[in-house]
Specification:
Elements (H helix, E strand, L loop, with lengths): L4 E7 L8 E10 L7 E7 L7 E4 L10 E4 L5 E3 L1 H4 L5 E5 L2 H12 L6 H12 L4
Antiparallel strand pairs: 1-2, 1-7, 2-3, 3-5, 3-6, 4-5
Helix pairs in contact: 2-3
Amino acid sequence: MKIGDIYLWETDRAKGHALRSKFHLYIGEAGWKDDGQAFLFISSNDYGGDFKILQSDYAFLTKPISYVSCNGIVVYPASELGGYTPIKVGNLRPADAVALHSALAGSDTMEQWQIQLCCRAVAGLIS
């Protein structure tokens, strides 16, 4: 997995759903606070302050408008991640990396250590 890769797999981590296919944007190793791999969900709903992406730019999306969560990361420990079958469906576009970085840096709901983790990861995609 590389930072900026977008994957699809069934997970029970989506709030309000027992099991659901979800798009995940790979951020990297969770780092000093949590063990495992960190992702941001991509959802069809804006839960406040999320980053909008368009199906016209990401053909694999199932709706015209989707949102990268800027509310918090989801961490899958290596032992748990091995139980899923991630399908790589695309990559975050460099132009969106710039705007996502700004959205993450300005998040009012994400914990500071998660903002730092995500901003460092996304900054590496900006050329």
